[in-house]
Amino acid sequence: MKADKIWLDGKFVGWDEAMVHVCTHTIHYGWGVFEGIRCYKCHDGRSAILMLDAHIERLYDSAHIADLKIPFEKQELTQVCKEIVKVNGFEECYIRPVVFVGDDQLGLYVKDPKVRVSIIAWVWGAYLGDEGLQKGIRAKISSFTRHHVNAGMTKGKIVGNYVNSIMAKREVVALGFDEAIMLDTEGYVSEASGENIFIVKKGRIKTTPLTSILPGITRGAALSLARYMGFDVTEERFTRDELYLADECFFTGTAAEVTPVREVDGRMIGAGKPGPVTSQIQKKFFETARGMHPEYHKWLTYL
Ligand SMILES: *Cc1c(COP(=O)(O)O)cnc(C)c1O
Fold first, then answer.
1. Neighbours of 240 (CB within 10 A)
2. d(CA 8, CA 50)
3. Which atom of ligand 1 lies nearest, measured to the CA of 219?
4. How far is the C-alpha of 12 from the C-alpha of 87, rounded, in Å?
5. pLDDT per residue over 93-106, tens digit each?
6. Digit-coded pLDDT (tens) for 24-68
7. What is the 192 CA–ligand 1 centroid distance (Å)?
8. What pLDDT does 1 receive?
9. Is 179 in the pocket of ligand 1 (CB under 6 A)?
10. Is this prediction's pTM over 0.85?
């Protein structure tokens, strides 16, 4: 993981120069927000960022939830996301904007936080592995519960919230699984450590409602593609046993893209391999991201 340039507080600097002080507030308490965005190489050879405006919008929404004021205009950060791909000479990459609080004051209450912004880009392959994308992954329900909606608010990508995801993921990886699924505070399935979850039963698709989950942009894309493809789709809570009994299950996320889940808690999901609905949505997703469907060019920002 390395690139030539990183954007920090208004300008591009060398990768090794993008340093912060140990007194940086966010390191101590996790008060900050971030985004994860992907740029794909399209079928015509051009590169395009997928759903850039939606990601920038959500970055500001996360900051609003966290009561942080980003000292740049949306338009400016949008432009930087495009430039960072170009200055580093990438065709495909992952883009990570991070908003954090500077080092001039410590303590929980900071009167006028000095909000800083960095945008980083690097080449990041399949988050859950190429084999996972093709054959499906093995997931386990974590003993860690997803944040209560009135504690770590789930609708923002808030830095400190991710300790919860890290604990869940580490727990299940130590047990030999690929990814953690988390239940909400009432015991219903919420989402994975950094992905939203879908199940398919008798051709009908179900995903958890937005109540206690991160409103994933890939989730939105998958819902839209599934509806366009004529599938019956509902946003409705479901239980752990309903998940066990599903014919298919898949995760969506910018990092994980559309990853099939072939096993949960040692139980095979359906035939224990990516099902037909999952495979069709996954194929459509990658084709869309790579510019093969003109009706979805509106989702792409070509560079
Ligand atoms: C980022 C994230 C997702 C996926 O959201 P996308 O916008 O699709 O990348 C899902 N759940 C959690 C907890 C996340 O942090």
1. 15
2. 22
3. 8
4. 9
5. 999 999 999 999 99
6. 999 999 999 999 999 999 999 999 999 999 999 999 999 999 999
7. 9
8. 80
9. no
10. yes
Distance 194 CA to ligand 1 centre (A): 5
Cite the beta strand spans of the chain per DSSP E: 5-8, 11-14, 32-34, 37-41, 47-50, 93-101, 115-122, 137-141, 179-183, 189-192, 196-201, 204-207, 233-235, 248-253, 257-264, 267-268, 300-302
CB of 253 shorter than 6 A to ligand 1: yes
Binned at pLDDT 50, 70 and 90, residue 72 comes out as very high
154, 196, 213: which to mutate for ligand 1, most atoms within 8 A of CB? 196
- Two tokens, residue 212: 């206690």
Q: Is the CB of 62 under 6 A from ligand 1?
A: no
Q: Is residue 275 in contact with ligand 1, taking CB distance under 6 Å?
A: no
Average pLDDT (158-171) is: 98
**Which residue, chain included where needed, has tokens 């869309």?**
288
pLDDT tens readout for residues 191-216: 999 999 999 999 999 999 999 999 99
Q: How many CB atoms lie within 10 A of CB 107?
A: 8
**How far is it, in rounded angstroms, from Cα 58 to Cα 61?**
5
Which of 61, 162, 195 to probe ligand 1 with, by most ligand atoms within 8 A of CB? Answer: 195
User: What are the tens digits of pLDDT across the range 256-268?
Assistant: 999 999 999 999 9
CA distances from 186 to 74, 154, 199 (A): 36, 15, 19
Q: Which atom of ligand 1 is nearest to the CA of 195?
A: 10
The residue type at 253: G
**How much of the chain exceeds pLDDT 90, in percent?**
98
